[in-house]
Amino acid sequence: MKSKVILVLALLAAVLVTIAVWQQGSDRIEDLSSRPLLDDGQLGIIGGAERIAVGRGANSVELVREGDVWGVASHAGYPAQRERIAALLHAVRGARIVEDQTANPAHHQRLGLDQSADSDNPPLSVSFAGGEQELGLLYGNEVGSGQLVRLVGNDQVWLVNRPLTMSVNSADWLALDVISIPMQQAATARWTHPDGDVLELEKSGEGEYNFRVVGLADEQQAGNERWINSMVLALINLRAQNVALRSDLALGEPELRMHVSTWEGAELEASLYDLDGRFWLLIDRFEQPQEGNLGVNADPRWAFQLGIGQVESLAKRREHIIRTQAGSEAVAE
Fold it and tell me: What is the rounded distance in angstroms from the CA atom of residue 178 to the CA atom of residue 211?
């Protein structure tokens, strides 16, 4: 019986190896039968680009580079998502021509490559500019696993090996992961309301996950860990909905002040504001040890817009997080 099992496993391994070799061979054949879409000069324009524009019809996103950081022009240069930028560059640089198509501009509309303003099916356009050099690409209909492409100013259409799908909504490009502090590293938290109500939280020791309310008996803490922790998590794992320059907002007094410290000595201070029913969070202070690697966007220029659900999670008082007492299910209103 054991020999039969070994034989079956050996046959299965042989099949898997054969499939892997075939797949690698197929990739090599595709590479040999295709050619790069862009030449070295065009790749050089992309590498030296200071501006990138991604658009479709009347909608577009413009990205500008300052040093090594790409920002979204319509949001005062706020940093763009590095992952999205990398995906765009990888797709454009790595595109390979699988087949030459038509060079007749009369067919561009049908192929989704008509750039005219009145086109019913506008292409996705991507342009790179730096100095006096510029490169533009138009992406049309998808065909199988590839996509039809042409260069701006060139009527020749090619089928490339990979499609490109990119959002033309500028908000989708914003790097809105504002605060990222692991829960295990957080040590203390303090929430201060305008009326002087202060809620202080702490952990029983380093390495613990759950916070507890300072001064509250252990039997009252039990069963409330979820509500206590969720309030802190809403701050230390914060992704904003939008961003604005602080100087553009007429902010008054904060609705809430928050402070979090970590076991390693980092400190975060933030405040929450209500501006005509829209809520904004400011990072007032963030300090961490020189060797620290916590992810916090503490740039003093920015205010971060939050959703109502996030605000409800943050703006809690003691009666909102102590929902069970001595094993009962009494819920505070």
Answer: 22
